[in-house]
């Protein structure tokens, strides 16, 4: 394990130059700072103590931001690299971004500098107890009172309590509240309002606002985030606190609707688009921790007195290698989506929307599963908190439900398939290429042309397979939809096939941009990625003519070769990721200590090893029997 | 939610009469005991405080055991029903059972009463840091010293430290230590030794033994278990402390080997065999918590002002209904295995071994996945600790690695397939029926005879399908093994198909034993179970002649009917499970409170809601900018 990140060409390729530069700067700033390096064992702390520790670390990062002139993105990156430090990032990651996107120039000039310097601290309050995915169901009202030129915010019901609002439970002074604007009795739908919720000098709640910290999350995850619950009772804000970048409300109640509705999409597109890259980094951490253990651990089949390295078994390689390939794909494709988002005015918004929806589902489903696989591939010892694998799983796990639940979101892919099929308009959406194939009966009844195992390494063969699979599932979906079936479950399989194709294409394009020196490694990775998706996607071919039994056998053989040939490339990729010991924070990845030495060290430091505090209880338990004269005991 | 369990015929059928009786007695004893009902919020506690709380509750259960004359099994049941109370159960669940199985009559007469009355408290020390699945690799040595008539126990290396030993970290006074017996320089392999590790009066460690509590487990699970690490340095025990039920060692060093090696198998057979039933109960809890939420929660598609109940969506039904069916199958088949184990002398040990191996893998893989599915089907709110879903996942998660890791264990199925194929001996093992099919080329090339969707509800059709699938995967495995492929990954799919068939057969037999009044419900459940396994098992049919595209379509249609017709039966089953509010311990399943009311209540009780303790830090953070004169801020 190193203390400084790798900066080779392959490292720059995987991380992207900008991100790698930020990462190096952040690690240099924190890696000798005792606030981060000498913190207590987080797994042993109570929620309250852990939250307090993370706040202290967050404030230290804030001071580093100001001192070193870090950008907001760099601060957000730092909260991730430094560990699970979540609350303060909300102001920079979500609040300011929404002010920039949705405020009028005058509003921006006043509010953004205050948020930038953390003089105020903001959050984004959309979700309600009763309204998650269905944003249109939001009940919070914001009624314009022309007499006072104010807007009166109310939570009319239990189900309209704002819920899951990050950083609201303790930290935030201001909230962007999504509420239905009511003007002269007319419901104008959801709008965004800036509401001050805490006093800037005392941090007391403002009148007419109730806030509770939400409580503990499952598996102890997101312990450092103070999600909040909030209700309003006739809470008055100035009319000018309605965000007026797209819409506006005059003092006389005249309402000016949005001319450009693009913005309604963009906020979600951005957040979902960024998830792929962020998830990829966490998955890579988990897989690399597991690989380090698998390189060390030996079990069964001794030769010359040494058992076989676990990493040499097919059961480990077949789990960790595809997961590593997917992690890289998530990062590369995520970065490409980020570039498209930054250039959003030149983009087909629907195409980008469908890509980010598919990527969000695909990356969160695979990402969570792959972190779990990494933990399981370490066997029993993977269950120790000190490996870091359990908390990585817990941290990623909710990504399948936040920012759009997997099955609800999948319907957007299904709906797009139906719409463009009916309108014969798939040529406008590059991701729906398989619909053109579906219109061509000749292509749908064709058999795969593969003759031997090596053919499966050919990109056109891979694309043909993945496109055929997506077409078969699209045909099924169109049939289901036509006969009125509730497709909300089955559409998931189509979505994953759709996204396999998107990721496959994106990865192929990225591989071509890698340096010549690293091309072989990246091509090997692309083959592991592709052949895994194909082998795992065979179910759609049951009953189809496309594949023969010989095809299936030769595909499995090709996949076996891709996996067994990947070991040296995997090592090169682990090098290029170049995670420091601080970043991995795992007993399986310590410098100067083997995993076994590390595990023993953890036990020696357990605060329960000194059990003097429970001895009276134990001695009492062992003499309890004397009180009871039963024959049995 | 009720406070007393359901005791209808269906309840008795699902739980089994004995278990239901024990459960009723336990709930009656604890449901008004403040040690259990007034305990603090476990999710907010530090590991040390949580451990101390659970110990106090465990001692209270011990006193109830003595007071009310509970059997060991009843005490173990109570530690589960009362919550996550693990440490004290080891003495009764594992230690005493091993004393009974492996001690000589004289040893039993002395030791078992002491353990029964908890005068001593035992644990089972097999796993080492470097040796989990490969028990033959165990390094701890037990060298006979004829001069003193003692056995000298040593941990020669770091990797021979005993590790993962439940109840050893704090509680145990005695350990059953698995070590290599060395007599006159000759290594006689693993044997079991009773070693006293703590003083009975002071609870201090015995000389020459080092023990550390192992530290926190990932996702905060098993927090109430004090797993321990242990090393020996010339630790001397009397020769008579070697367990002498099967083997013995004379004072002169003469060694008498075991005549009956059946016992070597039985301990693992028993533990794995019991897992299916225990897992089923936990899965049922999770699914029922999720069903209660899905009955309450509404989202999208409003009719008459009310959105649609989430439980009515295919995306929820297709996830929760098969999971409920599997949970029932795990309980019923687990109970059947328990009966076979109790009658072990009349059983084919290999057949029972293969069944328990398959069941252990199948039940842990499906069980963990189904608990996760239950949580995910509750959307974002499922991530709150107070739903109980996160801790159920965390608690079940390691079941895939303990008592035999899934992939390592799967090889035992693969090896049995190869052995019996070569020896044409499959008729001796009922679970390998599909090998006979594989020998019959005519049957392997046959097409399914299904004509219409209804045919899929016929048990012979279902069995034919599942057997064909297992045969296809066995053929693949035999081919892979013949060409020397490392099958350690691929054999997993065969194992699951093998176990699908075992569970399908067992469930069919069980359904026939249900009361006439409940037969329709149980048949509906068996169809959901079967058709789900078939739809999820289509991958094996890619490239095969067995299914046509029409078959796949009609199978999917049949499955859709099975699911959508199951809603009323699911409600009957939830009733029959009859979990009390105390057992479910979930904010989604409280009497007199809706899930939303419960979630708000949890927030009101969060100890972080009163944030006075961090206000100075927050105020400092919001004025930090004044120290830094950058133009930017």
TrEMBL record, chains A, B:
InterPro entries found in the cross-reference section: ACOX_C_alpha1 (IPR055060), Acyl-CoA_ox_N (IPR029320), Acyl-CoA_Oxase/DH_mid-dom_sf (IPR046373), Acyl-CoA_oxidase (IPR012258), Acyl-CoA_oxidase_C (IPR002655), AcylCo_DH-like_C (IPR036250), AcylCoA_DH/ox_N_sf (IPR037069), AcylCoA_DH/oxidase_NM_dom_sf (IPR009100)
Active-site residue list: 403 (proton acceptor)
Annotated compartments: Peroxisome
Record-annotated Acyl-coenzyme A oxidase N-terminal domain positions: 7-120
GO molecular function: acyl-CoA oxidase activity; FAD binding; fatty acid binding
Cross-referenced Gene3D superfamilies: Acyl-CoA dehydrogenase/oxidase, N-terminal domain, Butyryl-CoA Dehydrogenase, subunit A, domain 2, Butyryl-CoA Dehydrogenase, subunit A, domain 3
Residues of the Acyl-CoA oxidase C-terminal domain: 483-609
Requisite cofactors: FAD
Residue span(s) of domain Acyl-CoA oxidase C-alpha1: 265-417
Residues at which FAD binds: 127, 166
Superkingdom field: Eukaryota
Any GO BP: lipid homeostasis
Keywords per UniProt: FAD, Fatty acid metabolism, Flavoprotein, Lipid metabolism, Oxidoreductase, Peroxisome
Main location: other
A cellular component term, taken from the record's GO annotations: peroxisome
Family: Belongs to the acyl-CoA oxidase family.
Protein name: Acyl-coenzyme A oxidase
Organism encoding this protein: Cladophialophora psammophila CBS 110553
């Amino acid at each position: 394990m190193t203390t400084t990140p790798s900066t080779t060409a392959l490292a720059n390729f995987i991380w992207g130059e900008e991100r790698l530069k930020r990462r190096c700067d952040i690690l240099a700033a924190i890696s000798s700072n005792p606030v981060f390096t000498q913190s207590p064992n987080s797994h042993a702390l109570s929620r309250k103590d852990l939250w307090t520790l993370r706040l202290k670390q967050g404030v230290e990062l804030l001071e580093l931001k100001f001192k070193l002139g870090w950008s907001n993105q760099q601060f957000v990156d730092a909260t991730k690299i430094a560990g699970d430090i979540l609350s303060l990032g909300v102001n920079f990651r979500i609040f300011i971004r929404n002010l920039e996107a949705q405020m009028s120039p005058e509003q921006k000039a006043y509010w953004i500098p205050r948020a930038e310097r953390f003089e105020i601290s903001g959050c984004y309050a959309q979700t309600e107890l009763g309204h998650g995915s269905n944003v249109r169901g939001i009940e919070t009202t914001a009624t314009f009172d022309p007499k006072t030129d104010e807007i009166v915010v109310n939570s009319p019901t239990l189900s309209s309590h704002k819920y899951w609002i990050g950083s609201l439970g303790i930290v935030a002074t201001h909230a962007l509240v999504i509420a239905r604007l009511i003007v002269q009795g007319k419901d104008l739908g959801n709008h965004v309002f800036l509401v001050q919720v805490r006093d800037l000098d005392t941090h007391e709640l403002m009148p007419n606002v109730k806030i509770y910290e939400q409580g503990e999350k499952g598996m102890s995850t997101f312990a450092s985030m103070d999600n909040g619950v909030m209700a309003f009772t006739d809470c008055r804000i100035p009319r000018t606190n309605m965000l007026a970048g797209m819409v506006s409300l005059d003092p006389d109640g005249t309402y000016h609707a949005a001319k450009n509705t693009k913005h309604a999409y963009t906020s979600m597109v951005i957040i979902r688009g960024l998830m792929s890259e962020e998830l990829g980094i966490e998955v890579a951490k988990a897989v690399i921790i597991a690989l380090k253990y698998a390189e060390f651990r030996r079990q069964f089949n001794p030769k010359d007195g040494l058992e076989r390295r676990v990493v040499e078994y097919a059961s480990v390689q077949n789990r960790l290698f595809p997961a590593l390939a997917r992690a890289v794909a998530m990062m590369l494709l995520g970065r490409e989506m980020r570039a498209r988002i930054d250039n959003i005015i030149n983009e087909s918004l629907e195409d980008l929307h469908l890509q980010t929806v598919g990527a969000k589902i695909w990356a969160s489903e695979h990402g969570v599963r792959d972190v779990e696989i990494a933990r399981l591939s370490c066997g029993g010892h993977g269950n120790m908190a000190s490996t870091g694998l359990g908390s990585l799983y817990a941290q990623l796990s909710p990504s399948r439900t936040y920012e759009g639940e997997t099955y609800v979101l999948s319907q957007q892919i299904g709906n797009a398939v139906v719409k463009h099929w009916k309108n014969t308009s798939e040529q406008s959406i590059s991701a729906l290429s398989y619909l053109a194939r579906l219109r061509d009966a000749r292509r749908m009844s064709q058999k795969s042309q593969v003759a031997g195992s090596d053919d499966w390494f050919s990109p056109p063969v891979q694309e043909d397979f993945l496109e055929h699979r997506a077409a078969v599932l699209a045909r099924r979906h169109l049939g289901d939809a036509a006969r009125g079936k509730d497709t909300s479950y089955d559409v998931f399989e189509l979505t994953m096939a759709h996204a396999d194709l998107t990721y496959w294409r994106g990865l192929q394009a990225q591989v071509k941009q890698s340096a010549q020196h690293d091309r072989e490694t990246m091509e090997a990775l692309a083959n592991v990625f592709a052949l895994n998706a194909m082998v795992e996607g065979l179910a759609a071919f049951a009953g189809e003519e496309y594949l023969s039994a010989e095809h299936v056998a030769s595909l499995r053989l090709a996949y076996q070769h891709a996996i067994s040939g990947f070991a040296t490339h995997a090592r090169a990729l682990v090098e290029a990721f170049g995670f420091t010991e601080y970043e991995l924070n795992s007993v399986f990845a310590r410098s100067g200590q083997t995993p076994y030495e590390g595990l023993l060290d953890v036990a020696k430091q357990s605060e329960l090893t000194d059990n003097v505090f429970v001895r009276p209880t134990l001695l009492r338990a062992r003499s309890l029997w004397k009180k009871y004269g039963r024959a049995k005991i």
